[in-house]
Amino acid sequence: MADVKTPPPFVSFSMDSKRYYEFIGATLMQEYESEDGESEPLALRTAMRDVMVSSGELYERMAINVHLTKRGVEIGSRMTLSD
Questions:
Q1: Strand 72-81 with 11-16, pairing
Q2: Which of 11, 29, 49, 59 is an S-S bond match for 17, by CB 3.0 to 4.6 Å?
Q3: What is the pLDDT of residues 10-63, one digit of tens each?
């Protein structure tokens, strides 16, 4: 059996960036009241959603690897740009 010099990641995942940012944008559109009873204006929520959707158009995929090392938790990421 071969020695493994680099242990596998603790957690590893890859996702569709466009769908992820669309989901975040839709979540930002949800209206909720803060502790003082006020909600964010619709124009602000719409602008934040538009930023998220635009970000999703830049990236195709996102991959994350989490390693537990002697230095602590190390998170490596790789993003693939859209054509």
A1: unpaired
A2: 59
A3: 999 999 999 999 999 999 998 877 778 788 889 999 999 999 999 889 989 999
**CA dihedral (25, 31, 36, 40) positive or negative:** positive
Give which of 64, 62, 60, 61 is closest to 76, Cα–Cα: 64
pTM: 0.68
Q: Which of 44, 52, 66 is nearest to 22 (CA)?
A: 52
Element at 52 (helix H, strand E): helix 42-58
Residues 6 or more apart in contact with residue 49 via CB below 8 angstroms: 25, 26, 28, 29
